[in-house]
């Protein structure tokens, strides 16, 4: 909670802040859903932010990259340089039409296949 995350889709938002992780454990890992608040947004994007607003727009997101190491069942480990999310609607579909940067196979286990199909490359 309180972590600033990078948005890696073309929804119009640049940075968001995590409000809450939607699961039982403390914190969010790869493929987890989070509730986020928009901090920076581009004008003319799908995600809106009015002039003078600090952060009032609340959205859902899926963590696609995490700086924390995650072990895989084959013994390898995955770690990224930044924490990144893709914004989704309440039905779980991505708001943007493109996803930039690498994404992980762990999204397949969490049933986020639409995000994987929009991704540039899968690690």
TrEMBL record:
Q: What is this protein called?
A: 50S ribosomal protein L14
Q: Which UniProt keywords apply?
A: Ribonucleoprotein, Ribosomal protein, RNA-binding, rRNA-binding
Q: Which family does it belong to?
A: Belongs to the universal ribosomal protein uL14 family.
Q: Which NCBIfam families match?
A: rplN_bact
Q: Which SUPFAM superfamilies match?
A: Ribosomal protein L14
Under the heading PANTHER family, the entry gives: 50S/60S RIBOSOMAL PROTEIN L14/L23, LARGE RIBOSOMAL SUBUNIT PROTEIN UL14M
CC per GO annotation? ribonucleoprotein complex; ribosome
Q: So which domain of life are we looking at?
A: Eukaryota
Gene Ontology molecular functions: rRNA binding
- Database matches in Pfam families: Ribosomal_L14
């Amino acid at each position: 909670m309180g972590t600033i995350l990078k948005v890696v889709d073309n929804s119009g938002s640049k940075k968001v802040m995590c409000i809450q992780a939607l699961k039982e454990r403390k914190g969010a890992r790869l493929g987890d859903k989070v509730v986020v608040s928009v901090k920076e947004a581009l004008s003319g994007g799908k995600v809106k932010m009015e002039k003078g607003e600090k952060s009032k727009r609340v959205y859902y997101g899926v963590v696609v990259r995490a700086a924390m190491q995650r072990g895989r069942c084959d013994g390898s480990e995955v770690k990224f340089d930044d924490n990144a999310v893709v914004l989704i609607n309440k039905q779980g579909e991505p708001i943007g039409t493109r996803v930039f940067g690498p994404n992980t196979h762990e999204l397949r286990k969490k049933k986020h296949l639409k995000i994987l199909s929009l991704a540039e490359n899968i690690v």
